[in-house]
Write a structure and sequence with these properties.
The protein is α/β, with parallel strands linked by helices and about 325 residues long. The chain is built from 11 helices and 12 strands.
Length: about 325
Amino acid sequence: MTDAPDLVLEVRELRKHFPVHSGLLRRQVGLVLAVDGVAFDIRPGETLGLVGESGSGKSTVGKTVMRLIDPTSGEIRVRGEDVTRAGTARMRTLRRQMQMVFQDPYASLNPRLSARSIVAEPLENYSEVARSEVDDMVRALFQRVGLRPDQMVKYPHEFSGGQRQRLGVARALALNPGLIVADEPVSALDVSVQAQVLNLLMDLQDELGLAYLFISHDLAVVEHISHRVAVMYLGKIVELTDRETLFSDPRHPYTRALLSAAPVPEPGARRDRIILKGDIPSPINPPSGCRFHTRCPFAEARCLAEEPVMRTIDSGHQVACHLVEEQAG
């Protein structure tokens, strides 16, 4: 791979397979192909939205990129450095460059620590900041995310859901990272609070040049915050393009089905609904050929036997679908 210093994150052929054990001897009887050959890039100041149904592998991608779980194979490069093979000592240094905002603001904060301690913990553990300066930095972080410095003495249960997520954002910003992985960061919040947190993330991105990997199942949220969008199905990315193109001209049948199911904000407006049959197949035994063929209304014989590869059909628009490939040809 050639170096690309203008990229914050490069992911190539990322795979994460979980072993399945059974029986008294706990022998391995299979593999869960949670992530099975994913590739994408993120540039400074860019948000890549990652969408798909539950069970598509979105959160596993985020956790693997962060090295919270180790990948089975593939490459993850942060600022050109391959973190997939980094040891514990090196990862400790790399943690300064990559942070995460978790889905549940109730479970992701230690209830026994004060708000001040939660935000100060990364500074005290990963930086060389003098202890006398930590409080000043925490105050500045509180103000940056819209919290009052006098709230530093409170504990997580004394905050609302939106304030807790702001606290999680402040903790992620403490080490001045270049990349933040946000895993469903607003799904547990009320709609009005969602908008506040999303606008906060966008303002921080404009101010600090942050790169986001934004994981969500909510298409409206993804459309609001993302610059580009990758659509996942059963461990693979099936379509990747810029936001405007994806929502105005989706090409993969799965993407079209997802968009057709999204509510239309205009009263009286209607959208032709594409109904997918059945549930998403098991990642333990995914279908042969195209993994979407069991639910695709346009599947042909080729789709059952041959797995499609990601191809560029227009400038920056990539799709993994035999039918789209034939139409483009």
